[in-house]
Design a protein that fits this description.
Blueprint (H helix, E strand, L loop, with lengths): L1 H21 L35 H35 L5 H12 L3 H12 L3 H27 L3 H8 L4 H37 L11 H8 L8 H24 L7
Length: 264
């Protein structure tokens, strides 16, 4: 019963994130349709959350903003986990050059993630590909370092030594025995990093350095609603609430994955 309840608590955040990323498919209106005659309409009818200063459907813009923000975060996280796990495992099992590799990783991970965003945006300009590459690069180095350290520890454990003694190949040892034992910790780390990804996307979009003028996202919605905050506070509270729920969900998922140690 306890295991079933824990599985439900783990799956619930996943379902919420997937639903948020695919919610735009059920958008009630065109998020970019401007109708000045319908500006600042209250919730109801064709506009469940009302309209903004341009007469655009707030709910539709929230759903499309979720597609962009969660899409970048989830795709980036998948890339980070796949590449970080593979590269980290290969580096962690190397006996030679470990000091040099460790020094390089320490130097690269010492750079704040925000610096990667500034460098990439300055070099390539605003856009979803730029944001995705910058976020993946900044988090990938940290995951590689984590996997490398954990791999070196796992290779000294009894199960790994038994696998080596039984004639297991290096690839079999790393990807069949070691990888499952560190995957949970890697996913936990990436889930926590997803909160930083979301805040980075929103923050840079808020100041106009994020995804481009033609892309709908929560940071842009907050920025647009500032001028009418005193008259229509709900227009800024909706995207802020979505940001809060998104980051809370990632933290909840990380919490559910925290702890536990599997031995193969």
């Amino acid at each position: 019963m306890k295991r079933t309840r824990r599985a439900v608590f783990v799956l619930l955040p996943v379902v919420l994130l997937v639903a948020g990323a695919l919610g735009f498919l059920f958008s009630p209106n065109d998020p970019n349709h401007v109708d000045l005659a319908a500006r600042f309409l209250p919730p109801g009818g064709a506009y469940p959350l009302g309209t903004d200063a341009m007469g655009r459907c707030v709910l539709s813009r929230l759903l499309y903003g979720a597609r962009v923000t969660l899409g970048i975060t989830l795709i980036g996280s998948g890339i980070v986990i796949a590449l970080g796990l593979g590269i980290g495992l290969m580096i962690g099992q190397r006996q030679s050059g470990s000091v040099v590799i460790e020094s390089v990783l320490n130097a690269v991970t010492a750079i704040p993630p925000i610096a990667y965003l500034i460098i990439f945006i300055g070099a390539w300009g605003n856009g979803i590909p730029t944001m995705l590459i910058a976020l993946v690069t900044s988090n990938l180095m940290r995951v590689i370092k984590l996997v490398k350290s954990r791999t070196e520890i796992e290779l000294t454990r009894a199960y790994a030594l038994c696998a080596i003694a039984s004639g297991a190949s290096r690839a079999h040892l790393l990807f069949v025995h070691v990888a499952p034992n560190i995957l949970r910790e890697v996913v936990h780390f990436v889930c926590l990093s997803c909160t930083d990804m979301v805040m980075a996307i929103v923050s840079f979009s808020f100041i106009g350095l994020g995804l481009g003028d033609d892309v709908i996202d929560w940071g842009m919605m907050v920025s647009e609603a500032r001028s009418v905050f005193l008259l229509r506070p709900q227009l800024i509270l909706y995207p802020i609430g979505a940001i809060f729920l998104c980051t809370l969900t990632f933290n909840l998922l990380a919490r559910m994955l925290e702890g536990g140690d599997r031995r193969a």
